[in-house]
Design goal:
This protein has a domain of 111 residues. By secondary structure, it is mostly beta strands.
């Protein structure tokens, strides 16, 4: 099989079942074509994480998986900082971009069980085929598709986080009836966690110690169905639909001691209760014309959330918020194989609507403002064309061009249009060695929620580390040009070693700025276009079997070293990018005892700290921290497998120090937050028949 044949078939594999034999005229890929093979042959740099790797460390959802994935950045939410990477990685589900910031509480990624995922693809630089908002790369979560054989999978997991118990159940059925293949799964979970944060504040020579206990409960149930109807070898009709119901409850109890007094000087309690519903429906078809394929999809996605927040400290505060987000879309893609060219082109039309409404009661008085009820909409058109051109058996270049135009109405209006070119080059120096180079222009559009002037109040006591979050209607898009160069060596045992460098030049960098509002007496965080900056670094990766020394033993490691610079447009101060660690790494091993069919392993993840300089009279720094996860599984028989996990065995603590300065540069307040976590024990049994 020549290189061009492998490349063409690999590029099309996402439109059919990855485990089946794919036949496009004379193009075939056998089942033993592994993820490492695909990574080696793909014209665009791509890290592929297989299904079996996703479930072994006991992650309960896609969000937890991505936080441990190197090079991926996920919004922090209201908890400890998540995995830092090169910034603003876009997350897609089956090639469809999903917002991680629509909800004030939940993320759509939290509703995806690892058992639903076929694999995760991490592309380190943007390409024309996907969205222009690919700053920092693209993560595509590929969900399982129906297979020809009938099979049932069931999995039950019970766990303990400290003294709190959790339960998760997953059931999946797939099969084929004549010309119809189907896959249906049901996922239900009940999780409870309680963590403690110790807060020490030194203000005007007055020390306070706060103990804050946060107890969260989450109950979720969801069902998803995928149906493929193939009336002929040239036509396949596809339907994908899901509905998820989610209930979140979060309670915080805080006790503050002043100057070490035995009697608490204040007590604080807040309770947040919310429900949300997510609906997804898509109908499409795949038409084949010789070596050409035309695919189209019509889709609708809806997210609705309603929540109530009650808090009591010196003031009684009540809030009711409602969020409704919907989008409708139509997209089409055409692929054609012409001699040495593999050409792709397509379009997408998309309408997004969002309603944010908040009612606020302070000490029994309605203080709702006009900014607390906002309706927003966006109309977007995207066009792209991309060509994978094989110069010879060892060189492939992939130029692409994407154009996007959109109109937004969020109280104010804006109209944008931009071209984003990209160029990827693959040089296969030997059958085992690749050199890759790429350059891509990307943008980062403000989310509609970032443009909203409504206030998302902090759940617990307002402070430097936990400010209110307010949008910025004047926010403009962030633009960047990213360059990458990478060397890859592939071992005969399907292992890999690689080293790569990246550089990104950034205009209108979006950063979250924290200020103290002297009128309201509260800390507020607002996204702003901070200035012109750059980010550069080095990425290292090794994955290797050591079976020549120890049968069934393998190691993996990866690390990112990076540095940054930005000049603030307003202040003229030159500094590093905010909250950007210079070092992250993952280390681990796996060992399979073939005689007893036991596999066990460990993974250690370290996130380096950062020390941000003073900005708007506030600075923050964070110490580095590490997390160790252990797992072991045993194949009981052909049907059942038992797995045991201990997550976060190191009980990592995230320590953040925040400082407030006066106009003369003197420190007037220092706050140290130590967010403690606990080990989590999980036991699961899985059956397939």
């Amino acid at each position: 099989m020549n290189y061009r044949t492998i490349l063409a078939a690999t590029a099309m594999i996402s439109s059919v079942c990855a485990q089946e034999i794919v036949t496009l005229e004379k193009i075939q890929i056998a089942e033993d074509y592994t993820a490492i093979d695909e990574r080696r042959d793909n014209s665009i740099a791509k890290r592929i994480i297989k299904a079996e790797e996703l479930t072994q460390y006991g992650d309960s959802n896609a969000l937890e998986i991505l936080r441990r994935t190197p090079g991926v950045t996920i919004p922090n939410g209201k908890g400890p900082a998540s995995a830092p990477g090169k910034g603003y990685t876009v997350v897609m589900i089956d090639g469809e971009a999903t917002s991680t910031g629509t909800s004030k509480r939940a993320s759509p990624l939290e509703q995806i069980s690892p058992d639903m995922i076929e694999r995760i693809e991490v592309m380190t630089n943007g390409s024309a085929e996907y969205t222009a908002e690919s700053m920092g790369g693209i993560v595509n979560v590929v969900l399982k598709k129906p297979k020809a054989e009938g099979r049932t999978l069931a999995k039950v997991t019970v766990g303990a986080y400290g003294e709190d118990l959790s339960e998760t159940a997953y059931v999946q059925r797939e099969g084929k009836l004549d010309k119809v293949s189907y896959l249906v799964n049901l996922n239900a979970s009940n999780n409870i966690k309680e963590d403690r944060t110790d807060i020490v504040t030194d203000k005007a020579a007055l020390d306070t110690d706060e103990e804050r206990d946060e107890r969260s409960k989450n109950r979720s149930v969801g069902v998803r169905a995928k149906i493929n109807y193939s009336p002929s070898s040239r036509l396949k009709i596809l339907y994908d639909g899901s509905v998820t119901f989610n209930h979140d409850s979060n309670e915080i109890t805080s006790t503050t001691m002043t100057e070490g007094l035995a009697t608490p000087t204040s007590r604080y309690r807040s309770h947040d209760d919310a429900t949300n519903t997510m609906l997804w429906s898509a109908l499409g078809a795949e038409h084949r014309f010789g070596d050409d394929i035309f695919e189209w999809k019509a889709k609708i996605h809806s997210f609705e959330e309603s929540g109530d927040l009650k808090s009591l400290s010196t003031n009684s505060r009540k809030e009711h918020d409602y969020v409704l987000s919907r989008f409708y879309g139509l997209q089409g893609d055409y692929t054609a194989l012409r001699d040495e060219h593999f050409i792709k082109g397509g379009f997408e039309l998309k309408r997004s609507d969002q309603i944010d409404e908040t009612t606020r009661i302070l000490n029994g008085v309605d203080v709702t403002s006009v900014n607390d009820k906002i309706q927003m909409k966006e109309d977007k058109l995207s066009l792209y064309i991309q060509d994978e051109y094989t110069l010879n058996e060892g060189i492939v270049i992939t130029p692409g061009l994407r154009y996007e135009t959109l109109e937004r109405d969020y109280g104010a209006t804006s109209n944008l249009g931009y071209f984003v070119p990209s160029l990827h080059a693959l040089f296969q120096v030997t059958p085992k060695d690749n050199i890759r180079a790429s350059v891509a222009k990307t943008v980062r559009l403000p989310r509609l929620s970032q443009l909203s002037a409504s206030t998302n109040s902090t759940l617990d006591e307002n402070s430097i580390h936990r400010p209110d979050v307010i949008g910025n209607p004047n926010l403009t898009e962030e633009k960047a040009v990213s360059y990458e160069l990478r060397y890859e060596h592939f071992f005969a045992d399907k292992g890999i070693a690689s080293i790569g460098g990246f550089y990104r030049s950034i205009d209108d960098k979006i950063e979250n700025m924290i200020r103290f509002n002297s009128i309201s007496g509260r800390y507020e965080q607002t996204p702003e276009n901070a200035g012109e900056g750059s980010l550069w670094g080095l990425e290292l990766e090794v994955k290797k079997s050591l079976k020549e020394y120890v049968e069934g033993f393998g190691l993996f490691a990866n690390a990112t070293l990076q540095d940054s610079s930005i000049t603030n447009t307003l202040t003229g101060v030159k500094r590093e990018l905010l909250q950007t660690p210079n070092f992250t790494c993952n280390l681990g091993f796996d060992h399979t005892l073939k005689g007893s069919e036991i596999t066990y392993g460990a993974a250690y993840r370290y996130v380096g700290g950062y020390d941000d300089p003073q900005e708007y009279f506030i600075s923050q720094s964070q110490k580095g921290y590490g997390t160790l996860d252990l797992y072991a599984n045993k194949r009981l028989n052909k049907t059942f497998k038992l797995q045991f996990n201990v997550k976060n065995i190191t009980a990592s603590t995230v320590e953040t120090t925040s400082r407030l300065y006066d106009a003369g540069g003197a420190i007037t307040q220092t706050q140290v937050d130590k967010e403690h976590t606990k080990p989590q024990v999980l036991l699961s049994i899985e059956g397939k028949w």
